[in-house]
Amino acid sequence: MKRTPPPKKNSKSKFRNPKSKYGGILRLVFRIFKLAFLLFIGLSLLGVLFYRFVNPPFTWLMIERGFQRKAAGKDWKIDKQWKDFDEISDNMKRAAVAAEDQSFLEHHGFDFRAIEKAIEKNAHSKKLIGGSTISQQVAKNVFLWEGRSLIRKGIEAYFTILIEVFWSKKRIMEVYLNEIEMGDGIYGIEAASQAYFNKPAANLTKHEAAAIAVIFPSPLKWSATHPTRYLRHRQYLIMKNMRRLGPLDF
User: Fold this and answer.
1) Which pLDDT tens digits describe the chain residue by residue (250 residues)?
2) Which residues form the Glycosyl transferase family domain (predicted)?
3) Which ranges in 58-108 belong to alpha helices (H)?
């Protein structure tokens, strides 16, 4: 009786195609990145829509500064008092626009002329000059961390577009003036107004508003009540620009 020879082993089952193996890994990696990307888009949209109606309780910068104070042996300090848009002096709103973003009500998140000028100046200067709009600063302050990397700037641009689409200019200005760093442990215009001039933000004069606006670029080094000669000149220019601005129709 003849024996049936055993079936020949398929060489393909013994030696797998390395291309199919790497192809499977690449598909897995692609799926993971796709899920992460979709999760990021979904969460960012929810966050922007949420803060359209709810006031941000803190920013990552506040937390970072708090730990820096603790590391320096100081007490944890976040002096911040939220004030609605109508509870802030019009002088402060005008000073912020005059100092930081004179085309705030016209652009859609980016002032390309200011960015171009900043690039030209930075190419010939060791001191970096920013060209960020108020909208970009809000995107950075509320949703992101400090830094100058291209990745962070790219994400900042993405959030800038989102808040320009889903928020009004009034809301952007309201969040900006309530979240911006204005001193060591001082955040928002109400806390700054009380710290520097012992009065509510609703009662700030043009001179006082310009004095606060002038320290926006470097609030940890500069003081609204003890200005240098340079800051006094900047304050004069801000007040001059405030007079030039037309009505701010929010």
Assistant:
1) 556 666 555 555 455 566 666 777 888 888 898 899 899 999 999 999 999 999 999 899 999 999 999 898 889 999 999 999 999 999 999 999 999 999 999 999 988 777 777 666 665 555 555 578 999 999 999 999 887 788 888 999 999 999 999 999 999 999 999 999 999 999 999 999 999 999 999 999 999 999 999 999 999 999 999 999 999 999 999 999 999 988 888 8
2) 79-242
3) 60-71, 90-100
Integer CA distances (angstroms), 233 to 36, 127, 227, 236, in order: 49, 19, 9, 5
Cα 157 from Cα 155, distance rounded (Å) = 5
Residue 218 tokens read as: 């470097």
Asked if 89 and 207 count as a contact pair (C-beta separation under 8 A), the reply is no
Q: How many residues does the chain have?
A: 250
* pTM for this predicted structure: 0.83
- Spatial distance between the Cα atoms of 183 and 193, rounded to a whole number of angstroms: 11
Contact 48, 162 (CB under 8 A): yes
Query: Crossing angle, helix 18-53 and helix 134-143, to 10 degrees?
Result: 110
